[in-house]
Amino acid sequence: EDPMRVKLTYLASRQLAEPLRLALSIGGVAFEDEIVSYADVLRLRADGRLPFGQVPTLEVDGVTYAQTAALVRLVGRLSGLYPDEHAPRIDAVEAALADVRIALRPQWYGSVLGRDPVTSAQLVALTAEQKDAVRTALNDKVVPARFAQLEKMLAGGDEEPFFCGAAMTICDLSMYNMVIGLLEGWYCEGIEATVLAECPKLIRLAKRVHHHDRVRAWNAQHGYGTPDALQE
What we know:
Blueprint: E1 6-11, H1 18-26, E2 32-36, H2 38-46, E3 57-60, E4 63-66, H3 68-79, H4 87-109, H5 128-152, H6 170-184, H7 200-210, H8 213-221
Parallel strand pairs: 1-2
Antiparallel strand pairs: 1-3, 3-4
């Protein structure tokens, strides 16, 4: 039987696709990591090769799948990191992280409605004053409140550091990616690491993921470092 052919397509960044890359690596699933530019995205969109006009996409044996939430479940199943018994809890964490990303959109794009789905131009651009207000609200209220809710879901001790207890699942990879991105400043410019100041359990989770053998190998291969908060 021929091996499964898997290709992940995303930008040269870690925001949305990195949990998928890590899951495939942990699960031992061979995949092509296709890096595209914004110009490539416009071309792929015009050619009808992006089902919803966006990346990431995942191609499995010639069939293209899209939308981050769907890809998380698909990759989770392929990698063994989306067990049925924990699916509702994994979905809840992923939905909470999606809420954070939705709240971050004005900060990411500098506009109320993100980007035009056809041209990628800003939609309803924010003024400088509005940008300051958005950044302040996100840092002082929105993100810390969401993280406090996620922190409460980590009820276990050191032997059960993950959202589903002792076993790491794909939602832990999504949380880790957001945490390390905020600690290192690349997840969303203007959002400070102080949003994690009251979240020791989220930091503990991120540290456990970061030092997983296959995550460590992936990070070393790509030249990614370790922020002070995640040092052993």
